[in-house]
Design goal:
about 750 residues; alpha/beta; 17 strands; elongated; single chain
Length: about 750
């Protein structure tokens, strides 16, 4: 038996004694009942024997009563007393009644003694009975078959011994099993109670966890909403600031660089003030760009245009750009670069911006000494360091140096300028490449800023996607990447503007597209319809994995210009250089230009820029669509600079009307707009093809079909025989027909 179920000998003896007592009293009751029945049967028809039979019954009852009284004081005498009472009653019955055959009943007390007192007690009782039988041989009541009686008594002793020998072991085992079961039952009840308590605690914990998860989800949603609101606010505010700021920069630039366009020279004092206005407006424009960069990085919507570039060359270019400023302050410039090119895959523009920011800070804060630029390499990283002999940075300031808008004190802003965004943006750019940036500084001895770039291409954790498999289908939108293959970067810019939940990576060449696919594992590759076959051949390489290919007529600025029947498509803010390049690309020269915009300041700015670059050009002005058409009909300009968003007749209406009038249909138009009106109304014919290499479930195809059919419009109602015969493909409406027959109202035929 297990150790935990062991029972003490005292407990076993108590149990056996109690069991014996109960059995003894039951057997005595049975013996009394049998004696009474025997008395009835014996005296029936023989009344003379009633006295003897009654005496025997009373003797038996007397012995039982005395034994019962004795058992209250000493329970252990109950069993021997009852055995003795039964034996005496049998002997007296044999003597009084003269019935020797009653001697066979001596086997009953022998059995009881061996079974209830002890196994050896049965043999003792059998010996005593057999001895008594031998003594009775000398009397007249001696049984004639004494040998048989002795044999029965001895056999009863043996039976009692064999029964009692295993009976008590079984009793012990049974009792131990009972106690063990009882103990286990109590333990199970305790465990059940504990389990019930644990379950209640788990239910409470689950409820609290669910409430915490709901609170976290709500907080995350609120944080995401706040982040998106901040990004939208930054974008909207920057857009609202750019329009007047563009006017300020444009006018001040014209005044400073081309004062002759005003007909007479400006006083020197004016030119100095205008220079200050121009510099500060340019600084404000750079600040807006920095805020936009930060908002895009935080929204994870700023893709890196990686390319195989030479980091050594980037540093040389940055040093060349800043050297004049350094030497003008009387500082020395020390450069330590490797002799061989350092080829890396990185965004050249962003890293150049980081280096220029570090060099510019060093030049601004260093009054004497030198600035050192160093490029070192190890097995895994390239390290760029810019050190100066400036005033140094206090230790308590260093931990917050890369925070947005943080500066040690206001004297820095007053003395050296700056907004506190340069280092924060530099840190984000370096981290997007998988590197790190840090600073070492000591007051009075200078500072050393350094950053690392991995030699192998780094893909952020959100972009490390497997090329295939079910897991890639369940990615969050913020982790989805699109590679756009087109030689015009405006295609990727337009897609990024409309697909806000995706990171759009432009690829200007086939090799760049292939490298981006292998490195980024994008959700899909988007190509122009004309490039679909070439893209499929390139992406058949096993290194690309199973990347879906989407081909469609990609909108670009040149295509928008063609769709609007214009020569070019410019987005505000328009700089002098961008307008000059656009007008220089025109196929023919122009002598008379009409500028159309509902903002008189923008009209004046564009007029100043055109007059500064082409002084002989006659400038015409209009402030709405109807005025523009009237001027165009009367003056027949060679060039029209046209804004699309205007009250009344907008730019689209002007373009539509120009195409209807033969005398004006060939006028060169350059669209200059700040809205997406051109993208919304320009129509392209063609087909969209989606190639999915990996099998998709039916739900995936249905979602794809739903997304595609959401943008489709019902076919127009058939009103005339001519429209019934028209093909379903979009086509250009004849110049003599209204554009609304084949296209929506106010939309130009595509």
């Amino acid at each position: 038996m297990p150790a935990e179920a062991s029972i003490s000998p005292e407990e076993i003896r108590r149990l056996v004694t109690e069991l014996r007592l109960r059995s003894t009293w039951r057997l005595f009751a049975i013996a009394v009942a049998l004696a009474w029945l025997w008395m009835l049967t014996t005296t029936l028809g023989r009344p003379q024997m009633a006295g003897e039979a009654l005496a025997i019954l009373l003797l038996l009852l007397l012995g039982g009563g005395l034994t019962r009284l004795a058992a209250f004081r000493a329970p252990q005498v109950a069993m021997p007393g009852l055995v003795a009472s039964v034996t005496t009653a049998i002997a007296v019955a044999i003597a009084l009644l003269g019935l020797p055959d009653l001697a066979y009943l001596f086997g009953i007390p022998v059995l009881v003694a061996g079974a209830l007192i002890a196994p050896w007690a049965g043999f003792v009782m059998a010996g005593a009975v057999n001895g008594g039988l031998l003594l009775m041989q000398r009397t007249a009541v001696a049984p004639g078959n004494t040998l048989e009686v002795a044999l029965v008594v001895s056999l009863a002793a043996i039976v009692a011994w064999s029964f009692a020998r295993d009976f008590y072991v079984v009793v012990e085992w049974t009792y131990q099993s009972y106690r063990l079961a009882e103990r286990r039952t109590r333990e199970a009840q305790l465990h059940r109670s504990q389990l019930s308590t644990v379950l209640k605690d788990l239910d409470l914990a689950y409820y609290r966890l669910r409430r915490a998860n709901e609170a976290l989800a709500w907080a995350r949603w609120q944080a995401e909403e706040a982040r998106q609101a901040k990004a939208r606010f930054a974008a909207n505010v920057s857009h609202e600031l750019r329009t007047p700021l563009n006017l300020i920069i444009g006018f001040s630039e014209i005044m400073v660089t081309s004062p002759e366009s005003y007909g007479q020279p400006l006083p020197p004092a004016y030119r100095g003030d205008l220079n200050a206005i121009y510099r500060n407006a340019q600084h404000l424009s750079d600040l807006i760009d920095d805020v936009l960069d930060l908002s895009q990085i935080e929204a994870e919507r700023m893709p890196l245009t990686r390319e195989q570039g030479d980091l050594r060359q980037v540093l040389e270019d940055a040093v060349r750009m800043i050297r004049g400023m350094v030497e003008a302050k009387g500082l020395r410039m020390a450069v330590s670069l490797p002799d061989e090119p350092v080829r890396l895959s990185f965004d050249v523009t962003r890293i150049r911006q980081v280096v220029l920011n570090l060099l510019n800070n060093a030049a601004r804060f260093t009054k004497a000494g030198e600035i050192t630029v160093e490029l070192t390499m190890d097995a895994h990283t390239a390290t760029v360091a810019v050190a100066d002999t400036g005033p140094g940075i206090a230790p308590e300031v260093l931990p917050r140096l890369f925070e947005e808008f943080y500066q040690a004190d206001d004297t820095i802003r007053r003395e050296h300028g700056g907004t506190g965004l340069g280092l924060a943006i530099s840190k984000r750019f370096v981290e997007l490449h998988g590197g790190r940036i840090w600073v070492e500084s000591e007051l009075g001895r200078g500072s050393r800023f350094a950053f690392t770039l991995p030699l192998t291409p780094f893909v952020p954790s959100a972009q490390r996607l497997t090329p295939a498999g079910p897991a890639s289908a369940s990615l969050e939108a913020a982790e989805r990447i699109l590679v756009v293959w087109h030689d015009d970067p405006s295609a990727a810019l337009m897609l990024q503007r409309h697909l806000e939940d995706y990171q759009v990576y432009p690829a200007a060449s086939a090799s760049e597209m292939f490298e981006s696919v292998v490195r980024l594992r994008p959700t899909a590759v988007i190509v122009d319809s004309d490039s679909r076959a070439a893209a499929e051949r390139l992406l058949a390489d096993p290194r690309c994995g199973d990347v879906p290919i989407i081909s469609c007529p990609l909108p670009t600025r040149p295509k928008l210009a063609v769709g609007l029947h214009s020569a070019d498509y410019l987005l505000k803010p328009v700089t002098r250089e961008s307008l000059r390049r656009a007008l220089s690309r025109l196929a023919h020269s122009f002598n008379k230009a009409l500028i159309v915009d509902d903002d008189p300041a923008m009209v004046r700015l564009l007029a100043r820029i055109v007059r500064a670059e082409w002084p002989e050009t006659q400038i015409l002005q209009a402030y709405n669509g109807l005025m523009a058409l009237e001027v165009a009909r009367n003056e027949h300009p060679d060039l029209i600079l046209l804004d699309l968003a205007m009250p009344g007749m907008d730019g689209l209406g002007v373009l539509d009307q120009l195409q209807r009038e033969p005398e004006l249909a060939h006028t060169t138009v350059v669209v200059v707009t700040a809205t997406e009106l051109g993208e919304q109304t320009t129509q392209f014919s063609g087909e969209m093809n989606v190639k999915v290499p990996q099998p998709m479930p039916a739900s995936g195809w249905l979602n794809l079909l739903r997304a595609a059919t959401t943008t489709l419009r019902p076919a127009p109602e058939v009103g005339t025989w001519e429209t019934k015969q028209a093909t379903p493909q979009p086509q250009q409406a004849p110049a003599s027909e209204p554009a609304s027959v084949l296209a929506p109202a106010r939309a130009l035929p595509g």
